[in-house]
Amino acid sequence: MINKKVNNVTEALEGVKSGMTLMLGGFGLCGIPENAITELVHLEVNDLTCISNNAGVDDFGLGFLLQNKQIKKMISSYVGENDEFERQMLSGELDVELTPQGTLAEKCRAAQAGFPAFYTPAGYGTEVAEGKETREFDGKMYVLEPAFKSDFSFVKAWKGDTAGNLIFKGTARNFNPCMCGASTITVAEVEELVPAGELNPNEIHIPGIFVQRIFQGKNYEKRIEQRTVRKRN
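^ CoA transferase subunit A, sequence as received from the core. Prediction below:
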């Protein structure tokens, strides 16, 4: 069986260069590839186009890359928790392409499945549809959305094996599965890495065919983006 394990995050990110387009899994701060993001900061690559549901917060996640001005363009769905993101967007320093959340997920899945484009009703009649082909099906208008094209996908899973099979945990699953195999190279970081054959096949969420490199991450903070508690009686 093919062994896709690499020794560390440095080996996992070999080939990443300035100007590339990257997919990064996660939703808020849940399930983000913390080790890969930290290594991107250390590599000092810039002019990046990042495809991610959102841009983290000012002092964590993709916020690190924004602080260092390493991101040229963000393709996202929700960007309301990052003050630096807002500042760069309003000043024109950062190019932002806002995409409906379901469309963002489907553009990843289309790339994963090898489909060049798909029709969706989301965004018809709004700025989202400007310059795009539209078509009517059964009396309803749809917008043609192209699949994403990206160089690397960085995803975070709970458990994986050396063949690249992945299991996600709870809501940390989010955008990670649909980004696997959606880029030229998919890099998975996992909390627990086991030998091939040890995972229960019935529990695997993403088969290893969608993953090119896998490594065991470390020092996960798993920060909570918004902590809300009920007032004591």
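The first helix runs from residue 9 to 12.
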